[in-house]
Amino acid sequence: MKSTPFYTKLAHISISILAIGYIAVIGKSILAPLIIALLFALLLMPFASFLERKLRFPRAMAAFMVLLVLISGVAGLMVLLGSQLSDFARELPAFEKQLMLSLDDLQHWISRSFNINNRQQAAYINQTAETALGHGTELIGTTLVSLSSSLLFMVFIFLYTFFLLLHRGLLLRFIVALFHDSHSPIVYEVVERVQYIIRKYIVGLLLQMAIVATLTCTAFVLLGIKYAFLLGLLTGILNVVPYVGIFISLVLSMVVTFATGDTAHVLFVLAAIVVIHLVDGNYIMPKIVGSKVKLNTLTAVLALVVGEMLWGITGMVLAIPVIAIAKVIFDRVEGLKPWGMVLGEDEVANAQPEVPADEELPPLD
């Protein structure tokens, strides 16, 4: 059988990538909650199976109980975060006053260091404030629409999770029926591997979030940082977004500390978050999360960039698990194995070179 020319394969791949990107853009409102629901369903599937096999629950009842557990967990996290934000909101007037005093000190420092007088700084600040006020009504309207959209988004996630758990047997038979009978073992292997990787990834991600939040809270309490628990909780939650989340939490923590403390505390916050990020990146992430998802750094960064371009923050959160699922499929399909290889870790670079026993290493220059 004559093999397909390279340029034909390249054209097929290019058209497929463009088609997938276009479908992802126009189908965001359907695909984003569906993918999140799929991740939740894969995570909670063992619990649903336990209720069905051990406690003899009907499948619908088991799926409903699992859904209640999911809603309770999300609601608990939202209540915890909301209580901290409400405490912060009650002290907002004092926070604003302290922020203005800190900005005034910063203004005098700029005037002394860069010879920019206070009048020029005030004119720039007033111009910025007028521009912000001019868009105030639009910002409030956008915020309300975004809040209502987020609530509707969560409702669809819960509904999709319930129906995925309820009809998981039907969906599995559908996936198997799409391929020839001779490929059934590979299909079952891919499904089982995806379930394992995603389940371990999400559990590891939640554990990583808890560890980072605990370390940050502890460090901030020891340093005497105000709103330590709120800032630590936000750091743990934002750390779910790789690379970008820790930077956002750093900026928020430094701004709040700048308004409620002094310059030394700001530097302490900077040093604490940098050290925690180094510990997370070099030990917690590789041991807990990275050992389950074998992706190289270039792939992870490109996935985050593409995810942000397509779906914003939601795309950045979903980028890594989606690419991990794609890699599992690529590794087991003959024509796609090179793509699975390029997504994975560089085994040659990580491997230790073998040196014969009777051969000495050349001296280093």
Description:
With 365 residues, the protein is an all-alpha fold. It is built from 15 helices and no strands. The protein has helices at residues 6-26, 28-53, 59-90, 92-114, 118-134, 136-166, 168-177, 184-223, 228-238, 244-260, 263-290, 297-311, 313-332, 337-343, 347-350. It is globular and about 75 Å long. The model is unreliable at 132-146 and 352-365 (pLDDT under 50).
What is the topology?
Elements (H helix, E strand, L loop, with lengths): L5 H21 L1 H26 L5 H32 L1 H23 L3 H17 L1 H31 L1 H10 L6 H40 L4 H11 L5 H17 L2 H28 L6 H15 L1 H20 L4 H7 L3 H4 L15
Helix pairs in contact: 2-3, 2-6, 2-8, 2-13, 3-6, 3-9, 4-10, 7-8, 8-9, 8-11, 8-13, 9-10, 10-11, 12-13, 13-14
